[in-house]
Amino acid sequence: MVFIYCWFCLGDLPQRKSANWKLASLKWRRNSRTKEHRTSCCPRSAGGSTCRRSKCSQNWPPSAWNSRGWRNKDLKAKNQELEGQARLKTMKRIEALESKISALQDQLDMSAKDQAVMAKTNRKLERKCKEGMQQVEEERRHADQYKEQRSVDEAEEENTRLATAKRRIQRELDDVTEANEELTREVQSLRNRLRGRGGGGPSGRSGYTTPPEPRRKTTRGDRSGDAGEGDASLDADAEV
């Protein structure tokens, strides 16, 4: 406030200086004329009571002196009036600037409040955004777990299906192996009968037949070999 007042006072300083300068110039002229009258045109050595110059202030009538005094009073009044006007303008400008400053301060306070509200809203939005991101991440993790669980279930189902198919094939293989063994025994018995009939030995005369070989346990590798032997024996019987 002091700075603004000084600034406006300095702004009106030229007007004050001009008024003071006019008043000072008038005083200086009057003093210079009086001094000139005392030194040059009215020497005391001459002993004259009046000045020889027609325009000397000593020769002025009282009315002239009165008019000059009134002029000085008018100038002083005008100077005071100008100072009052300048002071009034300065006060008005100060009041206008104070009102502007108050308005700007109110606007600054409102902007600060708006900024605080916006910051609070921004924090809420950031919190909601974080919660949304966490929820999306949780849903994505659940989806991945569901996919993995589904893949595991599908793999277990496939394993179960393959195990069932394996058991079915194993049963079929066991059935085929048993059938092959039965056929092998029959072929062996037929071969023994044919040998007994065609040999003409004691066994053929007495009607005694060679007993079949005892059944033995076979493995998977032996089963394939037995199947081959059975096929060979069948071929031999066919030739006979």
From TrEMBL:
It holds the Pfam family Myosin_tail_1. Residues 130-162, 180-240 are annotated as: Disordered. Residues 228-240 have a biased composition (Acidic residues). InterPro entries: Myosin_tail. Residues 137-153, 213-226 have a biased composition (Basic and acidic residues). It is found in: Cytoplasm, Myofibril. Keywords: Coiled coil, Cytoplasm, Motor protein, Muscle protein, Myosin, Thick filament. GO terms for cellular component: bicellular tight junction; myofibril; myosin complex; myosin filament. Residues 69-194 form the Myosin tail domain. This is Myosin heavy chain.
